[in-house]
């Protein structure tokens, strides 16, 4: 993956053309977005989107590595960033380095992402100083759902100053970019203006330096719920279900397989 964009390339896009990103969890989806996205994120949202978990808390290192390897095989241009799952980095810098180094070694990712602001700054500094580019994630941090008390908008009112302090802390610690999730648009614009690394918005503002969405949300494959910040660019879920229903009906009617899908006893050249 020598020609791929790296963390420094993404960092250098601050204030320029908006940075485009989506999540991916599989090789075919990664292939579809490689030429369109600047970075591709293997989010721990994989637990909810593909594994049916009700939060991201049950996602493991093994799941992230397996999906990270799959996505890596589908990318040649986009920068590959992989989420550190809940419990794999919060204990302290040494635990974070051990798991992040394993993630990089086993997937070939360009960077890892972890949730947290001021409280994670020491860990971010430790990783970056030892060769691991870090993308931070502040605002709504789903791994803290049990202490946040719900998937609420973050940083409204007085909490805005704390969110700005979090963004500044991760920048100062050496993060190359920071995701702002579900924060007021004006606050996202203020953070974008006041820090020197790219802000990547999700439920934030078009003024951010870039945007990210969960791909299954935006193509309409994941329909269990739809956050307000998701725009459905396609409705593939119903299309897939229609195809499945039609197949089921044809099997029951014995109209599938048709002659063109079956093989004769002997017919040279028709073995495919
Ligand atoms: O897990 C994820 O998909 C994410 C993005 C939504 C930023 O963290
Ligand atoms: Na995530």
UniProtKB/TrEMBL annotation:
The alphabetical list of record keywords is: Cytoplasm, Magnesium, Metal-binding, Methyltransferase, Pantothenate biosynthesis, Transferase
BP GO annotations? methylation; pantothenate biosynthetic process
Which residues does the annotation say bind Mg(2+)? 44, 83, 115
* Catalytic activity reported: (6R)-5,10-methylene-5,6,7,8-tetrahydrofolate + 3-methyl-2-oxobutanoate + H2O = 2-dehydropantoate + (6S)-5,6,7,8-tetrahydrofolate
Amino acids binding 3-methyl-2-oxobutanoate: 44-45, 83, 113
As for family, the record states:
Belongs to the PanB family.
Which Gene Ontology terms cover its molecular function?
3-methyl-2-oxobutanoate hydroxymethyltransferase activity; magnesium ion binding; methyltransferase activity
- InterPro entries from the entry? Pantoate_hydroxy_MeTrfase, Pyrv/PenolPyrv_kinase-like_dom, Pyrv_kinase-like_dom_sf
Subcellular localization: Cytoplasm
Highest taxon, organism lineage: Bacteria
Task: Output a single Gene Ontology CC term carried by this record.
Answer: cytoplasm
Q: Quaternary state and partners of this protein?
A: Homodecamer; pentamer of dimers.
Function in brief: Catalyzes the reversible reaction in which hydroxymethyl group from 5,10-methylenetetrahydrofolate is transferred onto alpha-ketoisovalerate to form ketopantoate.
Q: What taxonomic lineage is listed for the species of origin?
A: Bacteria, Pseudomonadati, Pseudomonadota, Alphaproteobacteria, Rhodobacterales
Its protein name is: 3-methyl-2-oxobutanoate hydroxymethyltransferase
Task: Please name the catalytic residues of this protein.
Answer: 181 (proton acceptor)
* EC number(s) reported in the record: 2.1.2.11
Keyword field contains Cytoplasm: yes
Q: Enumerate the cofactors the protein uses.
A: Mg(2+)
Record's cofactor remark:
Binds 1 Mg(2+) ion per subunit.
**Pathway(s) the chain acts in:** Cofactor biosynthesis; (R)-pantothenate biosynthesis; (R)-pantoate from 3-methyl-2-oxobutanoate: step 1/2
């Amino acid at each position: 993956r020598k020609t791929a964009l790296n963390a420094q390339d993404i960092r250098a896009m601050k204030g320029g053309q908006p940075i485009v990103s989506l999540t991916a969890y599989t090789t075919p989806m990664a292939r579809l977005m490689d030429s369109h996205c600047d970075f591709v994120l293997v989010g721990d949202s994989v637990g909810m989107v593909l594994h049916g978990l009700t939060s991201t808390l049950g996602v493991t290192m093994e799941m992230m590595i397996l999906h990270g390897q799959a996505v890596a095989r589908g990318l040649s241009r986009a920068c590959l960033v992989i989420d550190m799952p809940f419990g794999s980095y919060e204990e302290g810098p040494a635990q974070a380095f051990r798991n992040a180094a394993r993630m990089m070694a086993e997937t070939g990712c360009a960077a890892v992402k972890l949730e947290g602001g001021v409280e994670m700054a020491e860990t971010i500094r430790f990783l970056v100083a030892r060769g691991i580019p870090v993308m931070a994630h502040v605002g709504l941090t789903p791994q803290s759902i049990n202490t946040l008390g719900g998937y609420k908008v973050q940083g409204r009112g007085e909490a805005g100053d704390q969110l700005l302090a979090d963004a500044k802390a991760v920048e100062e610690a050496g993060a190359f970019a920071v995701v702002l999730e579900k924060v007021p648009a004006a606050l996202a614009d203020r953070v974008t203006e006041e820090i020197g690394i790219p802000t990547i918005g999700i439920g934030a503002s078009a003024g951010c330096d870039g945007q990210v969405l969960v791909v299954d949300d935006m193509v309409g494959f994941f329909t269990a719920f739809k956050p307000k910040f998701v725009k459905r660019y396609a409705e593939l879920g119903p299309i897939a279900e229609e195809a499945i229903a039609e197949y089921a009906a044809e099997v029951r009617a014995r109209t599938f397989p048709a002659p063109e899908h079956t093989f004769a006893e002997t017919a040279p050249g028709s073995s495919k």
